[in-house]
Amino acid sequence: MKLKKTLIASLLALAMGASWAQADQARAQKLVMGSCFLCHGENGESASEVFPKLAGQHADYIAKQLDNFKTGKRKSTAMADMSGRLTTDEMLALGQYFERKPAVPETVNDAELAAVGRYIFNSGNHFSGVPACASCHGKDGLGTASLPRLAGQYASYIETQLTLFNQRERTNDNAVMHAIVSKMTPLEMAAVAAYVSGK
Fold first, then answer.
1. How far apart are CA 27 and CA 8, in angstroms?
2. Residue-range definition of the domain harbouring residue 6
3. Residues of the chain where predicted confidence (pLDDT) is lower than 70
């Protein structure tokens, strides 16, 4: 009898969890269609390189960035306003919504530049002390729950973020990135960005 009650309680908990997850995703879709899609697209494939692609990005990473925009750790007038209206649960729901969308790699226009980027991404630059990007972001550029997926992101967006880290204008996720990017040349930044955009 006790086993039966435990089994029923477990099944109810699973059903409730699935129900909450569906409600979260319905809420996330409403938020996306209410404002997010204007810049990032309904499926996270933004139409402009000014705005990052969110499709396939890690849910926890998206939620963290939204929270950082809300608290001012990461600066953006537009995103501070958007994220300021979100609850923690909504941030995670949005992250999960976009994480489930398929990511599409960019077409690499400069194969030679991307080849230089491939080398730096996988091996670093031993002459200047730049470590391999893959040591944190993975050989495939997919990152982890706490580190961003770089694969398929717009090259110009990645290059801009690297520049902001270098100039210490991006104020979150900065301890490691400032140290690394301060050793990178503009050519290395552009090369790495070109390489990962096509993955």
1. 28
2. 2-99
3. 1-23
